[in-house]
């Protein structure tokens, strides 16, 4: 196939801190029937990288258990869900016309083949991911973005953050003219939610911290609420008639405080638990107002196809906060965990290590 037999990769050998990330030289994976081999141009980091490494997802009936996204992880595991690159080889039964094309990989492992299939696994968790020079993927999950005006770095920010955001917006049935609350607004998913909600014509109320408020406003939020102050009071002041949809990656106390501020028939969509998974709210505010609490994990194939259409048109402009060479993956994850950046952190598998990150 003209590619090397060995590649550099970074993988986790067990659950723990950044020290469990190890550099390794491993065999370049061979694409099986129905798969393609992608030379990774850029791979973006996500909170799921941290939580998978830490085993922070818990298990049904045992919320404190060390676990990956959907159960035990097979170690060693190459992390990295968000890959942009170029197809360099194909397995049996795959159109050879894909070779040489610029692509983004849909990282989800689905429970079926239909457009509304549910994600039940994730590249970098249930299968090896893009913290490597090459990665394989099913040909059906590789999207040709050769003509996109976005850079590889920008394209790599899309799959998990923007896919999750679009899944939340679609499941929450956000419509033009509605008022939407976005929590965790300075993170990768938060910035994506702001941009996508604005593009849909919604009025965006974003929750962030003092040092990031200007950047969140620049991303397109109409109103930015300081999470260090009384959030419910700020929502009432900014949207006296209430909010139609909450797009929430924080959960915790925010749900109990702000759920009563949903309008009739409002939807509260949860896709994360940065503020804590143990939630309490007044259930009367739910059923008396025909409100809904909706869980949203990633996206469907149909959602991802919509996202790739946006990428080809350059209809979104992702924010890249910093880049690191692959061998500084542990440092990049530490930077992500500090949560001082706005936008996404990206690794370059083919870049040699230098003095530090560029951002």
Unreliable segments of 5+ consecutive residues: none
For the record, the CATH class of the largest domain is: Alpha Beta
Shape: globular
Write the CATH architecture name of the largest domain.
Answer: Alpha-Beta Complex
Q: How do the helices and strands follow one another from N- to C-terminus?
A: EEEHEEEEEEEHHEHEHEHEHEHEHEHE
Question: What percentage of amino acids are in beta strands?
Answer: 25-35%
Provide the number of structural domains: 2
Radius of gyration: 20 Å
- Tally of DSSP helical segments: 10
Biggest sheet overview: 7 strands, mixed
Number of strands: 18
Q: What's the average pLDDT? A: 94
Helix content: 10-25%
User: What is the fold named in CATH at topology level of the largest domain?
Assistant: Quinone Oxidoreductase, Chain A, domain 1
Structure, briefly:
The protein has 359 residues and is α/β, with parallel strands linked by helices. It contains 10 helices and 18 strands. Strand 15, helix 8 and strand 16 form a beta-alpha-beta unit.
Describe the structure.
This protein has 359 residues and is α/β, with parallel strands linked by helices. The chain folds into two domains: 6-161 and 300-348, Quinone Oxidoreductase, Chain A, domain 1, CATH 3.90.180.10; 173-295, 3-Layer(aba) Sandwich (Rossmann fold), CATH 3.40.50. Helix content is 24%, strand content 27%. The protein is built from ten helices and 18 strands. The protein has helices at 47-54, 152-156, 158-171, 188-199, 213-218, 231-238, 253-258, 284-287, 301-313, 329-338; strands at residues 6-12, 21-27, 35-44, 77-78, 82-90, 102-105, 108-110, 119-122, 134-138, 142-144, 179-182, 203-208, 223-226, 243-248, 262-270, 292-295, 320-325, 344-348. The strands form four sheets. Strands 3, 5, 6, 9, 10, 17 and 18 form a seven-stranded mixed beta sheet that branches. A six-stranded parallel beta sheet has the order 13-12-11-14-15-16, with helices on both faces. Helix 8 links the parallel strand 15 and strand 16 (292-295). The longest helix has 14 residues, at 158-171. It is globular, with a radius of gyration of 20 Å. The two termini are 35 Å apart.
């Amino acid at each position: 196939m003209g590619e090397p037999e060995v590649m550099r990769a970074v993988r986790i050998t067990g659950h723990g801190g950044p020290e469990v990330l190890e550099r390794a030289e491993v065999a370049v994976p061979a694409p099986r029937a129905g798969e393609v081999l992608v030379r990774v141009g850029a791979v973006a980091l996500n909170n799921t990288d941290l939580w998978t490494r830490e085993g922070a997802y818990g298990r049904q009936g045992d919320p404190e258990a060390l676990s990956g996204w959907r159960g035990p992880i097979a170690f060693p595991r190459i992390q990295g869900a968000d890959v942009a690159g170029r197809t360099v080889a194909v397995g049996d039964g795959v159109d050879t016309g894909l070779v040489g094309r610029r692509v983004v990989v849909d990282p989800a492992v689905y429970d079926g083949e239909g457009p509304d299939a549910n994600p039940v696994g994730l590249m970098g968790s249930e299968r090896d991911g893009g913290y490597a020079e090459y990665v394989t993927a099913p040909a059906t999950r590789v999207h040709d973005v050769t003509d996109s005006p976005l850079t590889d770095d920008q394209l790599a920010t899309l799959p998990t953050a923007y896919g999750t955001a679009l899944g939340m917006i679609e499941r929450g049935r956000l419509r033009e003219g509605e008022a939407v609350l976005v929590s965790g607004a300075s993170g990768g998913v938060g910035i994506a939610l702001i941009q996508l909600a604005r593009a849909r014509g919604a009025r965006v109320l974003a929750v962030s911290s003092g040092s990031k408020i200007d950047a969140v406003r620049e991303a397109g939020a109409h109103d930015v609420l300081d999470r260090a102050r009384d959030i419910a009071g700020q929502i009432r002041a900014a949207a006296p008639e209430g909010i139609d949809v909450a797009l929430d990656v924080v959960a915790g106390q925010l749900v109990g405080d702000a759920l009563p501020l949903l309008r009739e028939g409002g939807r509260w969509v949860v896709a994360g638990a940065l503020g804590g998974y143990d939630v309490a709210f007044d259930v009367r505010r739910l059923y008396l107002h025909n409100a809904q609490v909706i869980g949203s994990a990633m996206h469907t194939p149909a959602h991802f196809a919509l996202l790739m259409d946006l990428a080809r048109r350059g209809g979104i402009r992702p924010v890249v906060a910093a880049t690191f060479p692959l061998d500084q993956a542990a440092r990049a994850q530490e930077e992500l965990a500090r949560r001082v950046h706005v936008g996404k952190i990206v690794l370059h598998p083919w870049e040699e290590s230098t003095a530090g990150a560029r951002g």
